[in-house]
Every structure is written in C-alpha cells, then in structure tokens.
Amino acid sequence: MTTPGTSHVMKFQAPDNGEETARADLYGLLAQLFYAPPGDDLLAMIADYPSNGDGVLQQAWNELGEACKETDAQKTRDEYEHLFIGVGKPELMLYASYYLSGFLMEKPLAALRDDLAALGLARSDAMPESEDHFAALCEVMRYLITSDDAAHSSLAMQKQFFQTHLQTWAGDMCDAVMQHPQAVFYSKVAQLAKQFLEVEAQAFEMA
C-alpha cells in the first residue's frame, strides 16, 4: 500500500486527464493533508490552482484555496499537531475504528486488513499510523482508481471498498473537524473532503 506521505501532483479537474485522474488526484491530496500538515509549496499550489465551474464541491475547493492564502506552513503545522496529535489523547480522531466502535484497533480494523490482504496490499513499515487512518483509506481509493489490475480498478471494487470502509464513518469525522473551534485551515480541508465523499457516494449509487 502506498504510504500517504508520498507526494502527488494535484490535478483537480484537469482538462486533459479525465475525471478518473481528477478523482485519484483529489484522493491523493486529501491523503497528504490529513496525513501531515502541508508545506508552503503545497499551500501555494492549492491557492494558485485555477478555479473553474460551480457547485458545492467547487465552492469547497475555492474556500480551501482562500484558506491556503491566509495561512502558512507553521500555522498549519501548529493546528495539525493541536487537533490530531496533542498531548495524550488527540482532540480529534482520524481512525475508522474509533467512529465505528468507539475504540482504536478494533474489529473494523481487522476487517479492513482482511480486505487489504485480498487486494495484495499491506501497511508500509514506514507508516506509523494504522491502516484505518483516513489518509490511508484515501490512498487505497487512489490506488484502486489508478491500478493497472482491472479487477482492482473496476467500479465494483471501488464501490465496495468505499461503501465498506469510508462511507460508514468519514462524514462524521469531517463534521467533527468542521465543528471544532480550533479548526481553521482544517475545517476547510474537512469541508472539501465531506463534499467530495458525498459526490462519490452519489456517483456509486447511480452506477
């Protein structure tokens, strides 16, 4: 499984690469932003990216772009550490097991590991977080969309993984981040994530 810290080229709504590439790139971007705070280069890239179209997803993207213009790497690092790391228990959790069972490292993680093993994927030794971290799950979706293995990249496989391991809890996680009084930059990241996941859910239902 690709480690979520890996850098990806952001091509949101890229006109020459198609919708699937745009989906994969947005999953990759969300993985980066939730796995670790962005540096100044990534903030500038998001802030400067052309804004086209309308709708709730585009609005969320525009608001994130504005947030990137109003912050810097040090501020986002401080916010990330306060919200998701902290001293002792973090202010906010980014793990599926926590939202689905109330505890970390529980049955949802075991079920996820079984599904990852069936895909031939495993957690990298370089990744300190468990596989049910939101960033890791976004990375799996990115992999499924871009995989050269037709069985893995099929719409049916994407839908199954999404509905089983993301749709069941990620919206609640995004809401928790958006509602936290100390979430400034990350409230916009969570807003984009929630709108994107809702679009994905609707698309899978229509497929």
TrEMBL record:
Print the keywords alphabetically: Chaperone
Instruction: Indicate yes or no for the key word Chaperone.
Output: yes
- What is the protein name stated in its UniProt record? TorA maturation chaperone TorD
InterPro entries per the record?
DMSO/NO3_reduct_chaperone, TorD-like_sf, TorD/DmsD_chaperones
Where is coiled-coil annotated? none
State the organism named in the record. Answer: Noviherbaspirillum aridicola
